[in-house]
């Protein structure tokens, strides 16, 4: 019997009641854990014995996060093969030419062909690669609202906000505290743009990781015994032009990029 191809195959077996009896916040979170091999299918108290016996043999052994990212990337590339890239170009804010869809990632050209192969002038880590493919598949092309909101206010963001803060905001704040050229490099390397200081922050910077997906970084410097602070905000259309997984992946990918840049400059984090 073949293994589950993705978390959605597990999710379809569940009753979607989010009863939390499995100690997960949602059925989707439980499905992800089952797919990754972190939890057995029989920990869902709602599933019948017949369903468990039929499908428990399809569960994978526990995957590393690296293996999961590679698996996710492979699944997305397969989905891209059935996506009309030429038709999608306007929806995602890109152009189609010579068999490739090209969009701007942090202002840099990034192209995808019909087989899901990616071409770019900058190094793109697996977190960002998966997010870009997901964006092409799921972006609805909704106009930007200009209203900035935190991750927790996006659809599906409340349940994952704690993990988002730990994997994105806190490590990015640590980089900002120790790597004094962070914001200059965000402007130089990633085409960031300084904007008027939002929420009384000392520095406010807007990045465009994807054409219809801007991100606002606000940083407060340490002062008078108060610790520094950093928060990320997203246009309120973000959960229409990207799924919550894409938002999370982009933010986590930026942190990975700057951790590597910091180390290259001899900054100990």
Please tell me about this protein's structure.
By secondary structure, this protein is α+β, with helices and mostly antiparallel strands. Helix 4 runs parallel beside helix 6, helix 6 (126-138) packs antiparallel against helix 10 (244-264) and helix 7 (157-178) runs parallel beside helix 10 (244-264). 33% of the residues are buried. It has a 5-stranded antiparallel β-sheet with strand order 5-9-8-7-6, with helices on one face. It has a 4-stranded antiparallel β-sheet with strand order 1-2-3-4. The chain has 10 helices and 9 strands.
What's the short story on this structure?
The protein contains 10 helices and 9 strands. By secondary structure, it is an alpha+beta fold. The strands form 2 sheets. Strands 5-9-8-7-6 form a 5-stranded antiparallel β-sheet, with helices on one face. The chain has a 4-stranded antiparallel β-sheet with strand order 1-2-3-4.
Strand order, largest beta sheet: 5-9-8-7-6
User: Helical element count?
Assistant: 10
**What share of residues is helical?**
40-55%
Mind telling me the C-alpha Rg? 20 Å
